[in-house]
Amino acid sequence: METFLFYIFSAGLLLTAFNTIFCRNPAKGALNLALSMILLAGLFFLMSAPFLAGLQLIIYAGAVMVLFVMVLMLFNLKNELFVFFKKRAWIWTVFLFGLCSGLISLMAFSSPPRENPSYSFLEGKQIALKLFTEYLLIFEMIGLLLLVIAIGVVVLSRLDKEE
Amino acid sequence: MGKDFFEISINLIKIFVILFSMVGLVPLLVWAERRVSALMQNRLGPNRYGPFGLLQILADLVKPLMKEDFSKGNKKLLYYLAPILAVVPPAVVFGSIPFSAPFQVPAFEFFGFDLGPYTFYFQSFHLNTAVVFALGVSSLASYSLLIAGWSSESKYPLFGALRAAAQNISYELALSLSLVGILFLFNSLDFLEIIEKQSGPLSFSLLGKDFVFSFLPNWGVFYQPLGALIFFVALIAECNRIPFDLPEAEAELVAGYHTEYGGIKLILFYIGEYSHMMVSSALMIVFYFGGFDPYPFSQETLLNFLGSDFKLSLVLFFVFIIKFFLFLFVFMWIRWSLPRFRYDQLMDLGWKKLLPWALFNALLTAWFIFL
Question: Which CATH class is domain A1-78?
Answer without folding.
Answer: mainly alpha
